Amino acid sequence: MTEQDPPKRRYFRVPYPEKAQPPFHATSGQRYAVLDISEKGLKINAINDPALPVSARLSGIIELHGGKRISAEGVVLRQDPDGVAVALDNSLDVGQLFREQTYIRKHYPVFLLQKTSKTPQR
For a Cys staple, 60 with which of 9, 26, 37, 46, CB 3.0–4.6 Å? Predict the structure, then answer.
């Protein structure tokens, strides 16, 4: 791998445009926007939330497009300027993730092209 190659991900990830970010309703009562989601993790918009330090447990419901509600529970891995990364205890349904990607491609066709064009060119 060269310096220009993007890092490899373990799981397929679905990024969301700002207007399509599904809500994550935490059992604590907080509501966060989901920035991206994968089979074993998600990133939420909760920058500098003192209730979510690294290693904190988080659980709740994600309201996906089409009305699908899924339970998610895991541990906070890190907080960075992009959001809070959460490693999930159980895998999410990959089929549902593909349906989310299809929704984004249909309603925001330029978004995924913009995300992939940000990778460095050789």
Answer: 26
